[in-house]
Amino acid sequence: MRWRNLSARPAWLLAALGVVILWLGWFGFNPVGAISVHGVCGAWGTLAVGLFAKDIGLLAGGGAGQLVTQAIGVADAFCWAFPVSLGIFLAIKYTVGLRANEAEEMEGLDLTEHGMYAYPPAFVAGVAPSPTAVPAHLRARQPAPAVEPG
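The structure assignment produced for this chain is given below.
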């Protein structure tokens, strides 16, 4: 089996990389839950095939061969996705910037990035449910009053 040929140095490197990924995911560098949704759930779905597959899954009496194959697939996907994503995000960070500034975050990215509220003003904390609560440039234009002749 290929995984038995892994020497100590790459094993420690992989373990350290795993700790970094978990650290980034748990401490705020994963605001949309991409690691938990795509990473963890994707890995679980892939490994579940090795556990539950009819006739070849570990729990169906087929042995551990399919589970090991699926685990290698998860590792391969991670070893491709992590460096590619890291390269893309570093390129974005050092060219156009990856994060909004603090003032934009405090004002709310709905307005600063998209020019509108994501929810009706009545549901936004600190915003009165009135037409004046919407910034002037976002308000619907009111037609001019009709002028009666004469």
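Interim note for the steering committee: Residues 104-137 form one domain. The chain has a mean pLDDT of 76.
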